[in-house]
């Protein structure tokens, strides 16, 4: 990886994190705080796009910049883990279970759909 690609990956990560924040805030504004819909949407859409990217004919630098940088900054597993743990701690075990399963299984399904779409492009 060249220094330019490395720097671009870092910048793309910041852009992805900013996009995650803006989308999460916008969704929370509409849906409220009782369930982390924003982070769920972020992670599902990120898995979909990464699945598409995995099948596109792109050079290695492009994959690093978009896949690792942009989408790595955009998606977040740690937020899912913390929200799930907090739901469980609050006694909201059903919500914790639904969120954990929806996040993980939904992301796998979204990635598979993305892989399928990417294979068609």
Automatic annotation (TrEMBL):
Cite a single Pfam family from the UniProt record: CRCB
GO MF annotations, alphabetized? fluoride channel activity; metal ion binding
Q: Where in the cell is it found?
A: Cell membrane
Q: Where is the signal peptide?
A: none
Q: Which residues bind Na(+)?
A: 72, 75
What residue intervals traverse the membrane? 35-53, 65-87, 99-120
- Reaction equations catalysed: fluoride(in) = fluoride(out)
**Which family, according to the similarity comment?**
Belongs to the fluoride channel Fluc/FEX (TC 1.A.43) family.
Functional summary from the UniProt entry: Fluoride-specific ion channel. Important for reducing fluoride concentration in the cell, thus reducing its toxicity.
Know the name of this protein?
A: Fluoride-specific ion channel FluC
């Amino acid at each position: 990886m060249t220094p330019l690609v490395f720097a671009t990956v870092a910048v793309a990560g910041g852009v992805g994190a900013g996009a995650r924040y803006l989308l999460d805030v916008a969704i929370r504004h509409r849906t409220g705080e009782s369930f982390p819909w924003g982070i769920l949407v972020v992670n599902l859409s990120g898995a979909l796009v990464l699945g598409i990217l995995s099948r596109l004919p792109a050079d290695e630098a492009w994959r690093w910049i978009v896949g690792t940088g942009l989408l790595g900054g955009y998606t977040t597993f740690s937020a899912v883990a913390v929200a799930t743990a907090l739901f469980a701690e609050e006694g909201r075990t059903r919500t914790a279970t639904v969120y954990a399963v929806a996040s993980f299984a939904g992301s796998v399904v979204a990635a598979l759909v993305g892989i399928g779409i990417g294979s068609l492009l």
